[in-house]
Specification:
Elements (H helix, E strand, L loop, with lengths): L8 E4 L9 H17 L3 E6 L4 H9 L4 E6 L8 H15 L3 E5 L2 H13 L4 E3 L3 E5 L4 E8 L4 E5 L7 E5 L16 E6 L30 E5 L10 H9 L3 E4 L1 H5 L16 E9 L5 H4 L2 E10 L12 E4 L2 H16 L2
Parallel strand pairs: 1-2, 1-4, 2-3, 3-10, 4-9, 5-9, 11-12, 11-13, 13-14, 14-15
Antiparallel strand pairs: 6-7, 7-8
Helix pairs in contact: 3-4, 5-8
This protein binds flavin-adenine dinucleotide.
The site of flavin-adenine dinucleotide has 27 residues, from helix 6 and helix 7.
Length: 335
């Protein structure tokens, strides 16, 4: 088959049996725009049972159709049944592209079915483009430590498969698109052939302090932090602002803050009203994960790259400026 014989773009809708995860809906909204450029139709792919009420959200994101897969093997996530289902579906319908949320599960099964289909899988693109001459999607992401933006394409093989991190694209539904095609598929996977056994299940004990993706205010601490003992003042500032604390990768690597608080390309993508960074140099791997209405940066180096991203820049010692902000806020609050 020629690559031009592959048509339509698919988005995998991850869900917990009740609700569609945000990432699938975000991808639908973004891939809708791509399909409007390429002329492809946009399909949402659902494995296992998802209540009909959730279908409305999917349609509202501009899907032209839904592919529902029923059968055995989908009781709980396992990479064998999931990658098998997508392999079977792709061989039958030949989509041009398949987008999967870059969650723990998505990053597990997407590369596996890409291998089974002998095609390419890209991860963590921050922008999507399209080359009308070649018909290839352009997956754009920071590379070489953020020094360049790499454009990745799958020039010969199809489908073009991609995992995209939650929060990379905005959930901005364009509204329903008229008639929706619904395809029902029965693809059973022998539960006995699943190589991974679920012995027990403990829902993620979600500590609200670690859920920063949509916090109204984030105080982000970077590698300029001397040590753990200096961290407390930043927690105090975050609390006074009604916000949460986040960090850059080096702080996670130094064992000072947990991975869930790492913001950026390989961490969490945040959307916030106010973002204040302290001792953050401004590598694109970090700033690519920040969508802030107001961005304030504090750094002792006046030439730090972060000053090219921020709305307000303060040159000075991070601890001193944090203490001054705390003092000013306390004075205003009469504390
Ligand atoms: C594939 C890949 C993915 C990555 N993903 C991420 C990611 O998701 N998130 C992420 O954060 N990084 C990520 N990185 C790492 C990224 O490239 C940078 O190395 C990192 O963001 C730098 O963190 P930083 O700004 O805190 O540290 P540094 O670059 O070390 O900067 C520290 C800053 O602190 C300032 N400073 C020092 N002391 C003081 C002081 N007393 N007062 C004020 N300022 C001070 C310095 O002037 C400097 O600007 C990734 C890298 C790669 C290769």
């Amino acid at each position: 088959m020629k690559k031009t014989d592959y048509k339509d773009m698919w988005v995998y809708i991850e869900h917990d049996g009740q609700t569609a995860a945000d990432v699938g809906l975000e991808l639908l909204c973004e891939v809708r725009k791509l399909c409007d450029t390429t002329g492809d139709r946009l399909f949402a792919v659902i494995l296992g049972n998802l209540p009909e009420t959730e279908t409305g959200k999917i349609i509202n994101c501009g899907a032209d159709g839904i592919i529902r897969v029923k059968g055995t093997g989908y009781g709980y996530f396992n990479t064998d049944a999931w990658s098998n289902a997508f392999t079977v579906l792709c061989r039958k319908y030949n989509p041009s592209a398949v987008f999967v949320g870059g969650t723990i599960n998505g990053r597990d099964f997407a590369p596996r079915f890409a291998v089974q289909l002998n095609t390419g899988c890209t991860s963590d693109a921050m922008e999507l483009g399209y080359d009308p001459e070649t018909g290839d999607i352009r997956f754009i992401e920071p590379a070489v430590g953020g020094k360049i933006m790499a454009v990745i394409t799958v020039p010969e093989l199809r489908p073009q498969i991609a995992t995209i991190r939650p929060g990379t694209f905005k959930y901005a539904p364009c509204g329903a698109r008229g008639e929706i095609s619904v395809i029902e598929e029965e693809i059973s996977f022998d539960p006995g052939a699943v190589r991974c056994r679920r012995l027990d299940y403990f829902p993620d004990e979600s500590d609200p302090e670690l859920d920063i993706a949509n916090a109204d205010c984030i105080v982000c601490v970077g590698n300029g932090l001397k040590d753990q003992e200096h961290l407390e003042r930043y927690r105090t500032l975050a609390k006074l602002l009604g916000g949460k604390i986040g960090c850059t990768r080096p702080l996670y690597e130094r064992g000072i803050l947990p991975y869930k608080l790492q913001i950026g390309q390989s961490g969490v993508m945040v959307k916030t009203k106010l973002y204040i960074s302290f001792g953050v140099s401004g590598a694109v791997n970090h700033t690519a994960g920040v969508d802030a209405d107001v961005f304030v940066a504090v750094d002792k180096n006046p030439d730090a790259q972060i000053f090219n991203f921020c709305d307000y820049g303060i040159v000075g010692d991070m601890d001193e400026i944090c203490d001054e902000m705390i003092a000013q806020l306390r004075a205003r609050k009469g504390q």
